[in-house]
């Protein structure tokens, strides 16, 4: 189970890091033109950059504390943060009737909750 948690956390970190970097570097117009980018119409450029920064921080929080052995309790906390981020994304997509994208958010939500459960519970770094 420990290996599965590491793999899932690492894959989620890669996905969040790439999405966050795109949100931080691309303009709102370029993001809106991408497939599934319609949600950007509901947010200002600053809010999109803030979401990107949160995604980058979540990516770092899912892996780095455990790798360095410094405050590894941050890993499940980052996973809870990702779960909350995905709930917000699902609400946004629901309001916009973008049902296909919600499936992806739901998958990320499930993976984040699994990592949070595993790292708070049976495979905790503390204990």
TrEMBL record:
UniProt entry keywords in alphabetical sequence: Membrane, Transmembrane, Transmembrane helix
Membrane topology of the entry: Multi-pass membrane protein
Main location: membrane
Transmembrane segments annotated in the record for this chain: 6-26, 47-68, 74-94, 101-120
Subcellular location per the Swiss-Prot or TrEMBL entry: Membrane
Full protein name: DoxX family protein
The organism of origin for this protein: Nonomuraea helvata
């Amino acid at each position: 189970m420990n290996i599965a948690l590491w793999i899932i956390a690492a894959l989620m970190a890669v996905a969040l890091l790439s999405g966050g970097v795109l949100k931080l570097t691309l303009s709102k117009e370029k993001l809106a033109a991408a497939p599934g980018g319609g949600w950007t119409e509901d947010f200002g450029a600053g809010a999109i950059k803030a979401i990107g920064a949160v995604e980058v921080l979540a990516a770092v929080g899912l892996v780095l504390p455990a790798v360095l052995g410094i405050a590894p309790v941050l890993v499940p906390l980052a996973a809870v943060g990702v779960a909350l981020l995905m709930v917000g994304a699902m609400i946004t997509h629901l309001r916009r009737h973008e049902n296909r994208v919600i499936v992806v958010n739901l998958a990320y939500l499930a993976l984040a909750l699994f990592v949070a459960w595993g790292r708070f519970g049976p495979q905790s770094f503390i204990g």
